[in-house]
Amino acid sequence: MIKIENIKKSFGDKDVLKGISGTFEKGKPNLIIGSSGTGKSVLLKCIVGLIKPDDGFVYYKHNEFTHASRDLKTEIRREIGMLFQGGALFDSKTVEENVMFPLNVLTTMPEDEKLDRVNFCLKRVGLENQNKKMPSEVSGGMKKRVGIARAIVNDSNYLFCDEPNSGLDPQTSILIDELIAEITEEYETTTVVVTHDMNSVLGIGENIMFLYEGHKLWEGNKNEIMDSGVKEFDDFVFANKVMRKLKKLD
Amino acid sequence: METLGKYFIFLGSLFVNRETFKTYFKLTIDECISVGIGSVSLVSLVAFFMGAVTTIQTAYNLISPLIPDYVISLVVRDMTILELAPTIIGVIFAGKVGSSMASGLGTMRISEQIDALEVMGINATSYLVLPKILACLLMYPMLVILAGLLAILGGYLAGVLTGVITPQEYIYGIRFEFNEYTVTFALIKSFVFAFLVSSISSFRGFYTTGGAVEVGQSSTAAVTQSVIAILLADYLLAQLLL
């Protein structure tokens, strides 16, 4: 479980996050949603420590992360897997080397065990026999899958996904969402997904946090979307015709 | 001043929270191949012609019959060892290796590969930059030695083939009143220049923000600042050590 308390972050005179609190539960996908520029990615980067918040606390289980010692931060980070928006694969390494990378650097596992683990993870994300391909030789969706395999290879307790569906077609997006949801349930990870894709919200949104202009305006799950009672949230969710028709039907 | 402070903090972060020796060893060897072997052809070509041109131009300027011909090779030797091999090759090294380091790290930064390392709990500065600096410290002095030898060989061939000096006189001049300290001085300079080029270029690349245009700008800034640092250090070392 991850708990955040009163997270604030400004860049210059622009307040991006204005005191966000919440809890991300274990074993189900937690979604941070909102329009572009509302601070979703900044919040995610504050949680994983890529950006230091101006104020507030982030707790991993009972360990406070933001003000923790370097050693404790490293210890916590070694339990984190992250899928970046563009995949962030190391472009000079093959698919296999990318997935094996955390094992090479962070563990003393024997080579054959490492290879078994990599093959298992690649199979889990549906990429068996793609080991020797370079990142430049695989599609956007496959890059995301490799990113997920790399994120889970080290038995991570925490999985963070920054816009996992950006740049993907709707079908592939759904596959990636399902994969994230399955892995979360299967490995009991605490998963935080930043997205503005409504298909993801409706598909895997077990715990949804809606951000608006740096504030948390709504929290709930996919079944509570229709009756949020928050105008800004309704404007975001029912922005397109299909969703508006769906609401009328409801 | 703020950038200078950031640079020193960057250097300090190279030595904290490091990975295992084995990890660095492999990375350093890879970098040595990229930095060293990858630069041999360019350095050799430049050094050879530098020596050849120095011989011809020195001969052209020494028109007095009172000055013996072996002075030509003596001038080539001292110029090569003291200045041309460490400094001019340093400038070329900054252009080739420095820009490559800055653009490589810059691209890693904008494509979130550095963030990926940080999230895994790896000290990205140390993991990515320390092997580059170590490789430059190991390989650049070797490149300087190679450049010195090839420049003297280039001078020999140019001088002998054009008939401005005989082989005997050239060899005599090369050996005449040779001061071994000049080699030590050249090697000290090469270590300092290697550190400056690798650390400044890595620093510029590591803190790239933006996109493809900014990667190019970082690369240009890395070369410019490395060259300025080399020239300043060259002057300071000459004042201090000669």
Name the quaternary structure. Answer: heterodimer
Report the end-to-end length of chain B measured between terminal Cα atoms.
30 Å
- Look at the structure and give the mean pLDDT of chain A: 87
The largest beta-sheet of chain A arranges its strands as 6-7-8-3-9-10
Describe the sheet with the most strands of chain B: none
Cα-based radius of gyration of chain B, to the nearest Å: 21 Å
The rough form of chain A would be described as globular
- H/E element order of chain A: EEEHEEHEHHHEHEHEEHH
Strand pairing plus helix content of chain B: what structural class?
A: mainly alpha
What does this molecule look like?
The complex is a heterodimer of chains A (about 250) and B (about 240). Chain A is an alpha/beta fold and about 250 residues long. Helix content of chain A is about 40%, strand content about 25%. Chain A is built from nine helices and ten strands. In chain A, strands 6-7-8-3-9-10 form a six-stranded mixed β-sheet, sandwiched between helices. In chain A, strands 2-1-4-5 form a four-stranded antiparallel β-sheet, covered by helices on one side. In chain A, helix 3 (about 95-105) packs across helix 4. Chain A starts with a strand and ends with a helix. The model of chain A has no long low-confidence stretch (mean pLDDT about 85). Chain B is mostly helical. Chain B is about 85% helix and about 0% strand. Chain B has helices at about 1-10, 20-60, 70-110, 115-120, 125-160, 165-175, 180-205, 210-240. In chain B, helix 2 runs antiparallel to helix 3 and helix 3 (about 70-110) crosses helix 6. The longest helix of chain B has about 40 residues, at about 20-60. Chain B is elongated and about 70 Å long. The mean pLDDT of chain B is about 90. The interface of A and B includes residues 49, 77 and 105 of A.
